[in-house]
Amino acid sequence: MSKEESIPTAMVRRRRISLTWLVPIAALIFVGVLVWNQTMRERGPMISIVFDDAGGIGKGSEIRYRGVTIGIVRKVRLDRGLEGVEVNAELMQSASGLAVEGTEFWVVRAQLSLQRVAGLETLIGPNYIALRPGEAGAEFQRGFVALNAEPIAEPPADGSLRLVLRTDRLGTLASGSPMLYREIRVGTIRDAHLADDATGVFVHIDIDPKFVPLVREKTRFWRSGGVGFDFGLFSGLSVKADSLEALMMSSISLATPQKKPGEPALPGAEYELADEVDSDWLSWEPVIELVPSNSTRP
């Protein structure tokens, strides 16, 4: 036997991959594809919003509409002209219809003063961006310029009654201040502006649909709210406030006489706003049937 014949020859066999490993790998790939598809379906359009001041807004801040989060801020940076702040945000797919021409954005911050109380949820949580959508069917839009404050509400379309009060000064009244009847909120102050000849101020108010019958031709309006002090030699110091809500902010109260109250008020009717209440007005006790809550004014 030769030496070459005595040396064994090594045989190399390829190791086969067990099919049992393919099952979990395929399952992981399948799950990954499902997650990716779901993520892509939920992702909506990227939009750009330019603010004068985006204080309190950063990466991860929310965009909310009707109290629901519908978008997330992805990037915040100065704009190219260094005159504003550009916020890039991603909307959810379900909210993509809000990125249309006419949509208005603003930052919600806490406001606590004698004139206005708003955004109190941001005292214990982060600031966020709110919006008011444009008209349905408007064209899609990616770039927006934000408002510096919450926009003034448009004239109501829910049956509310909008009236105008004339006064020589605005004082501490502000948008959002309450309208009160017997210390019950029945409406809201919407806005105010100077008369065309600058001789006075017009205050626009909305009376809620249910309380529209309270307002007649002879209804009287006066400034209320705040705190009043009275000191007597024998009675001591007394403090008066119309209501807790009126204590927090200025308000307007109204009363209607029971005798000859006049016809129901028409939209846009003008009334005088008195600085103080007449004692006779507080004694008026008309019987007025209110509109049910689920009804609207014809």
What does this structure look like?
- By secondary structure, the protein is mainly beta.
- The chain folds into two domains: 42-145, no CATH class; 161-283, no CATH class.
- The chain has three helices and 18 strands.
- The strands form four sheets. A seven-stranded mixed sheet has the order 5-8-2-3-4-1-9.
- A hairpin with a 2-residue loop joins strand 2 (62-65) and strand 3.
- The longest helix is centred in the N-terminal third of the chain and has 24 residues, at 19-42.
Q: What does the secondary structure layout of this molecule look like, with pairings?
A:
Layout: H1 3-6, H2 19-42, E1 43-51, E2 62-65, E3 68-78, E4 85-92, E5 104-108, E6 111-112, E7 117-118, E8 128-132, E9 143-145, E10 161-167, E11 178-181, E12 184-194, E13 201-207, E14 220-224, E15 228-232, E16 236-240, H3 244-248, E17 251-255, E18 270-274
Parallel strand pairs: 1-9, 2-8, 10-18, 11-17, 14-18
Antiparallel strand pairs: 1-4, 2-3, 3-4, 5-8, 6-7, 10-13, 11-12, 12-13, 14-17, 15-16
Count of domains: 2
Describe the sheet with the most strands. 7 strands, mixed
- Beta-strand segment tally: 18
* Termini gap: 119 Å
Beta-strand proportion: 25-35%
Shape: elongated
What is the strand arrangement across the widest sheet?
5-8-2-3-4-1-9
The percent of residues in helical segments reads 10-25%
Q: Which consecutive residue ranges, at least 5 long each, have pLDDT under 50?
A: 112-117, 119-123
Mean pLDDT, all residues: 80
User: Over all CA atoms, what is the radius of gyration?
Assistant: 33 Å
H and E string: HHEEEEEEEEEEEEEEEEHEE
The helix tally amounts to 3
- Content-based structural category: mainly beta
